[in-house]
Amino acid sequence: SDHPVLALTLREIAKLHIREGNFVSAETYLKKALVIQEKVLGMDHPEVGATVGRLGLLYRLQRRFEESESSYHRALKVFEKSHDLNSPYILDVNKELVLLNEELQKPRVDK
User: Fold this and answer.
1) In this structure, what DSSP letter does residue 87 have?
2) Mean per-residue pLDDT, 70-85
C-alpha cells in the first residue's frame, strides 16, 4: 500500500541497486517511492526532495545530465522550503550540482 515507510524502504533498496550498478532497477524503485511520497506526503516534503536527489545521482551516473540537473534543482527547491540554507541537505545537493558541472566540462571521448 501507499505508506511513507514503504517509500523509504524502496529508496534504500534503490541505493543498494545503484551501488551494484543495477541502474534500471534502481530507477524503478526510486520512481515507485516518489509516487508514494508525492501522494502521501505532498510535493514539497523533504523526503520527496531526498528521493528526487537520489534520482539526480542515478541520472548523473548514467550520464543523463539534463535529467540529473533537473532532479537536483527540484530537490534544492524542496529543501529550500523546509531547511536553513546551511543545511546538510542543501549543501549536499549543491555539491552534487558541482560534480555534475564538472562532468559536463570533461571532453567527450568517443570509443
Assistant:
1) -
2) 95
Cβ(71)–Cβ(39) under 8 Å?
A: no
Is 39 in a helix, a strand, or coil? helix
Q: How far apart are CA 37 and CA 45, in angstroms?
A: 8
The whole-angstrom separation of Cα 67 and Cα 98 is 15
Rounded distance between C-alpha atoms, residue 76 and residue 96, angstroms: 11
Can you say whether the dihedral through the CA atoms of 103, 107, 108, 110 is positive or negative?
negative
Whole-prediction pTM value? 0.91
Q: To the nearest whole percent, how much of the chain has pLDDT over 70?
A: 96
Q: Provide the CA 77 distance to its chain's centre, in angstroms.
A: 13
CA distance 77 to 29: 22
Q: How confident is the model at residue 29 (pLDDT cuts 50, 70, 90)?
A: very high
